[in-house]
Amino acid sequence: DAGAYEAVFDAALAADERIEPRDWMPDEYRTSLIRQIAQHAHSEIIGIQPEANWITRAPSLRRKAILMAKVQDEAGHGLYLYSAVETLGARREDLLDKLHTGRQKYSSIFNYPTLTWADVGAIGWLVDGAAITNQVPLCRCSYGPYARAMVRICKEESFHQRQGYELLLALSRGTEAQRAMAQDAVDRWWWPSLMMFGPPDDESAHSAQSMAWKIKRHSNDELRQRFVDICVPQAESLGLTLPDPELRWNEERGHYDFGPIDWAEFREVLRGNGPCNAQRISQRRRAHEEGAWVREAAAAYAAKHGEARS
Ligand code: ACO
Question: From which domain of life does this come (predicted)?
Fold first, then answer.
């Protein structure tokens, strides 16, 4: 009976064991995981666009090779995560359809434009830095396939974060114009990066339940604070400033205080009114349509291969 199954599920969570695809799980647990992992997968795929914008204009062969490797990693993360959602019974084509028709979200951060080469550095340092801060605890998420996917993804994100830092360091030690370009990129990406962690805890619809289910291990505000504390000394060693006059060390709390986040801007971006929302979705749909022949060819090959074996 359902009660007995539920008791097994609760006991597994209490013992910090992983829930696996064939285990019984509450419908709401499944639905919430599908929601979060699908959004995460979509973010990886949409996140390719702002960076791919600079591949043809990278300033050297070395920088181009690094950026191509990074973008390829992000595509891999997306595919990895779509596979993780499929273990919950979701179909990839339905998830993509929901992305393309605005029925599933992707991270707010990828709706901002990459105006200069320094933006590639700021994305690596801040956006991938925020992603790691959020994702390292997901390696201990209660759902096995998601937790395991996160292990590899975090390792690759860590490389991405370092390449961004190193890129900004080169610019900040370069000519005055290069330093100014790096500073301008950090000024534009700082606040949107803080928004990546989601709404404040008292407005976060899913946090309480996701924490009870051990999907999330820390609240949105806790992780945001952790990220700010990591970034302040890194900005100092980069020789760049963070665009927040209220940023200062609070001895009592043992954390940096920071200024208010513009949540009205966040809500607008989520409603589809960010600077690049329309462009991101139309480009994604076009890529999907233009890739139809690849999916057909792969399916035909798989069918033929299956026949040959049987
Ligand atoms: N961008 C877009 N939507 C967001 C964001 C954001 N930065 N933050 C929160 N939201 C959405 C939530 O998805 C939720 O919407 P929904 O009910 O339609 O799903 C709503 O705002 C309320 O937020 P919460 O209740 O706080 O949602 P949740 O508990 O899921 O926490 C979080 C949000 C922290 C993003 C969580 O889902 C998470 O950890 N996801 C995995 C990490 C991830 O997706 N990273 C993507 C960017 S990193 C990268 O791709 C490189």
Answer: Bacteria
Mutate to test the pocket of ligand 1, among 98, 206, 221, 263 (most ligand atoms within 8 A of CB): 206
Q: Kindly report, residue by residue over 127-139, the tens digit of the pLDDT.
A: 999 999 999 999 9
Residue 2 above 80 pLDDT?
Answer: no
Task: Measure the CA–CA gap between 132 and 109, rounded to whole angstroms.
Answer: 14
Assess: ipTM above 0.95.
yes
Residues with CB under 6 A from ligand 1: 35-36, 39-40, 43-44, 47, 105, 107-108, 131, 134, 195-199, 204-207, 210, 220, 270
Can you tell me the mean pLDDT for 213-223?
A: 97
